[in-house]
Write a structure and sequence with these properties.
The protein has 2 domains: about 180 residues, Alpha-Beta Complex (Spore Coat Polysaccharide Biosynthesis Protein SpsA, Chain A), CATH 3.90.550; about 240 residues, Spore Coat Polysaccharide Biosynthesis Protein SpsA, Chain A, CATH 3.90.550. It is built from 16 helices and 19 strands. α9 links the parallel β11 and β12.
């Protein structure tokens, strides 16, 4: 690599890190955002970060080097200098525009490697992990900043990521030369709801605006359907069915079933439990409750390989399924006895294909947990079907018109099966929302996402990114054909 070709900008001053980097012969300059306030007395950028578009424009306008390294070091960063030099001796930024790297992560003095995912056109969620060190082509970085004509306070890096994604100029480096020292000691399952907290609302709105612009630029934006949804043509014995897939939930299944049995409605409903070959006492508990209520339908699949999606397909395609199929997970409960009535009323009021409610987080004993109500306000009638591609889930409880769901079956997986169906339905039909709480979502050690490994997290994210890729390609192809 030629001498003096890289500028380095850190989010905050780190004298130890700077001392290790400043004498490398390919570094042209190195400074932190903390220093900008001293360099430019009339402009206070203190306590800002790379998500601030003013900061990005300042950096780009003052670049004279071939490339720039942005180091997000609000969490402490340790760099292996020998590995760092090796990476940049063998890499030409002209080959790409935006390079991010595998890295290490240290928490409670335990270090593990974090292999990041390879970005593609479906990698558009705003929490796609590009790590804490980004290597950008200066010319393309300047171009991106010059095209940014709105003030961003929370999503500057997300804007850059989508910009380079459109150019197909994003590359993953598998060399792990740095370590992030984690100061947030919460489990992964405790962090996943941070984005719905009130203090993050502006952040979410801004990211939605950035992402919506991206979809329009790639011809994947869709407007609300204008055609009226046809009336249900089939005859159903039951107006609604509560669908509960379950396997080995002896501690919670009775609570879930009783929650459904307690529903008070002005229409007939049943409860379809798909017992996926439980090996604990779950089956016995279901049979005991079935003996006291004829509302319970207990199905055991013939197949041995069904996941949650396959269990749903078995339920909705059975002769017992009602006009509306309504979700209840085997460790959750409905908020009160009016949940089913509210959902069915909404279906009739809005003639909709799918409905998503809101839920409260509770512990195993049903005590409320922060942040409390999860209402997914990011789903709106005007833009929900687009914003759904940016976020990682649609909310709960989910309910469907059965005739439409039978034409949009679930993939046979146990993660993202509901997201896949929601994306497919939203492309064709309206999805209604109820923003009041309808549901109690238990957070406990039995949750499938309570504290999952980085390997499983990557597997889950990769699957949903593949769904987004397919959806974006379908939308873009539809626009071209029309």
């Amino acid at each position: 690599m030629n001498n003096k070709t890289i500028s380095i900008v850190l989010e905050k001053q780190d004298n130890i890190l700077i001392s290790k980097l400043k004498d490398l012969d390919f570094i042209s300059e190195i400074y932190s955002l903390d220093q900008i306030v001293d360099l430019h007395k009339n402009t206070n950028y203190a306590n800002s970060d790379f998500d601030n578009s003013t900061i990005l424009k300042y950096i780009s306008s003052n670049l004279n080097s071939e490339s720039v390294l942005l180091i997000k070091n609000k969490s402490k960063i340790e760099i292996n200098i020998n590995s760092f030099v090796e990476v940049f001796d063998n890499y030409k930024i002209s080959d790409s525009g935006f390079l991010y790297f595998d890295h290490f992560y240290k928490k409670d003095n335990i270090e593990q490697k974090i292999p990041v995912l390879t970005a593609h056109c479906g990698s558009v969620r705003d929490d796609f992990n590009t790590g804490n060190i980004l290597f950008l082509n200066s010319k393309l970085f300047k171009d991106a900043c010059s095209e940014l004509n709105v003030q961003l306070n929370y999503s500057g890096l997300y804007y850059l990521f989508l910009y380079f994604l459109r150019l197909d100029k994003i590359e993953r480096g598998e060399n792990s030369f740095y370590t992030i020292i984690e100061s947030d000691n919460r489990k992964s399952g405790e962090k996943i709801f941070d984005y719905v907290k009130d203090e993050f609302r502006r952040n979410q709105i801004e990211k939605e605006e950035v992402f919506t612009s991206h979809l329009k630029l790639i011809d994947a934006f869709v407007s609300p359907p204008k055609t009226e949804l046809h009336q249900v043509e089939e005859n159903f014995e039951f107006e609604a069915s509560v669908i509960i897939p379950v396997r080995n939930r002896q501690r919670t299944i009775a609570d879930a079933i009783k929650s459904a049995l307690n529903q008070r409605t002005d229409f007939p409903f049943n409860i379809i439990i798909v017992d996926n070959h439980s090996t604990d006492s779950t089956t016995d508990i279901i049979d005991e409750l079935k003996s006291i209520s004829n509302k319970l339908i207990h199905l055991i699949p013939e197949e041995e390989d069904l996941q949650i999606g396959g269990c749903w397909n078995l339920a909705i395609n059975s002769e017992f399924c009602g006009k509306y199929a309504i979700q209840l997970d085997s460790d959750d409960l409905y908020l009160d006895e009016n949940t089913l009535q509210k959902i069915v009323n909404k279906f009739k009021e809005e003639n909709t294909a799918m409905l998503v409610g809101s839920y409260q987080l509770v512990d195993f004993s049903l005590n409320e947990l922060a942040p409390g109500l999860i209402d997914h306000k990011e789903w709106t009638f005007e833009n929900g079907r687009n914003n759904a591609l940016r976020i990682n889930g649609l909310g709960a409880p989910r309910a469907f018109r059965t005739d439409i769901l039978r034409k949009n079956l679930f993939p046979n997986v146990s993660y993202g099966e509901d997201y896949a169906v929601g994306l497919a339905i939203s492309r064709q039909y309206n999805i209604s929302r109820i923003y009041d709480s309808l549901y109690l979502c238990r957070r406990w050690e039995g949750n499938s996402d309570s504290d999952i490994s980085i390997e499983q997290t990557n597997k889950n994210n990769e699957y949903k990114d593949s769904l987004r890729k397919t959806e974006i390609e379908i939308r873009a192809k539809s626009k071209i054909n029309s």
